[in-house]
Each structure stands twice: as C-alpha cells, then as structure tokens.
Design brief:
Strands 1-2-3-4-5-6-7-8 form an eight-stranded parallel barrel, surrounded by seven helices. By secondary structure, it is α/β, with parallel strands linked by helices. It contains ten helices and eight strands. The chain has helices at about 5-10, 15-30, 40-50, 70-85, 95-105, 125-135, 160-170, 215-220, 230, 235-255; strands at about 30-35, 55-60, 85-95, 115-120, 140-145, 175-180, 190-195, 225. The structure holds 6-sulfanyluridine-5'-phosphate (S5P). This is Orotidine 5'-phosphate decarboxylase.
Length: about 260
Amino acid sequence: MPRPSYGERAKNQKNPLAQGFLELMERKQSNLSVAADVSSKAELLELANVLGPYICLFKTHIDIVEDFDQDLVDQLTALAKKHDFFIFEDRKFADIGNTVRLQYEKGVYHIADWAHITNAHPIPGPGIITGLASAGVPRGRGLLLLAEMSSAGSLATGTYTQSTIDMALAHPEFVIGFVASRRLTDQADFLYMSPGIGLDVKGDGHGQQYRTPAQAIEGGSDVVIVGRGIYGPGKDRVAEAKRYREASWAAYLTSLE
Ligand code: S5P
C-alpha cells in the first residue's frame, strides 16, 4: 500500500515539533541525518556547514567534543537556521525522571536549550518521559524512544520493544517517535529514525550492523542516519552525503507509489 508523503503527514500531525520536522523534510527533499561523531568543535561545525545543505537532521554526541563551549552551541544553532535542519542530541538518557530532567536542562551542556530532539532508553519506565517532558515540552522539544538498536546482540527486542510502543502512545505531547529499524505501529503517526546505515560495508568490528537506505525505508523508516559512511577515512564527505541523500529520497519516493 502506498504511504502518505511527509507533507501530507505534516498536515495531520498534532505534535508541533513533529509537524515542523515533516514540513522541513518535504521542503528540503531530504530524509537524511548525519551522525556527526567527531571530537572537536571545529570539525563538528565544519560538518554542519558543508553537509547542512543535504540533511534534514544533524545528530550530535555533544559529550565527545573535547573543546565544547557555549559558542559551539551558538554557531551550530546559526548553521541550523542557515541551512534549514534540526538538531538531534543523541544523549540516550537512561535514569529516573528527576535525574534525567537535571541532565537534560543543567550541567555543562544545557541540552534542552538547543537540541530540537533528544532520545531516551525506555528501561527506567514512563517516569523517564515525564521527567524529560517537564523540561522539553515548555521549550517545544521532541523525544525519540530507543525501541530497538542496530548493534548485534541488542536486548531491545520482543516485549521490550512492545512496551516501548505503549509508553510512547501514552505520551503524545512529547514522544514524537522512535529510534528503530522499522515501522512499529499504526496506532499513531510516529517518526522512525534508523541508524546502522551503510552502502558499502556490513559492520564496524564493534557490533554495528549496516543495512542500505532502501532496506530501512522499505521497512517503514522515515529518516536514515549515517555517520562514518559519509565522513569515514578517505571519504569525500559532500559526494557521500549527496549519494546517501539520493538513495534515501529515491527509496522514499518509491514508497509513495
Ligand atoms: O541503535 C542505534 C542507535 C543509535 S542512535 N545504533 C546507532 O548506531 N546509533 C547511533 O548512530 C550511534 O551512536 C552513532 O552516532 C550513529 C551510527 O554511526 P555510524 O558511523 O555507524 O553510521
């Protein structure tokens, strides 16, 4: 059955962050996210600037940046506006609600102040969502739950994944979707973001498992997350970003037919 377009889904979305993101994908004709796992401020900003035109979402691990400062956040925010992308801090919160709220709002990074989207493991139960929501909802942010993981031997399967869906359904004001390998439910229109994507290799020697963008989109993913496939050793970053964007967008267009 043909799927509705990102633009059509935007019209029916009740969550404003998810709506804005779907509109951005449609406008920019990109369902590609880059996973910018680099450890210097200069490299991170360089990636955001050169790859910004091709992506809908810039995914960070802010705690691996060795020279983090507020200016990095200010510059990244300016690049997000200039190139029209959202920022996803891949923090993978995993503690009780009160603690994650503090980790989200305070400390060195103040993630809630600049990341449009962040994510959490469902393992502590629904309190992790309400804790994060207390800081995120007033700022218009969105949360993804890790319903599955791309790594070999992941424990996020079966009833764990099912319980994650139930937790998401109970919190539509803040949960906009999942990190997962495939579409999980038709009970609400969630966003599905899939890491573990590569066109050339199958793994990384540390448990990561790669599938192609087409495989992810065919399974119902909305956003394809690519890291080293774009900027790994010897890669032409812009050429690779274009290649992944084209492959992912072509797979999306096929899913509409
Ligand atoms: O299950 C997961 C969830 C995530 S968010 N598997 C993942 O690989 N990720 C993240 O996606 C991971 O933290 C990394 O930032 C990115 C994949 O990077 P790559 O270089 O393997 O494409």
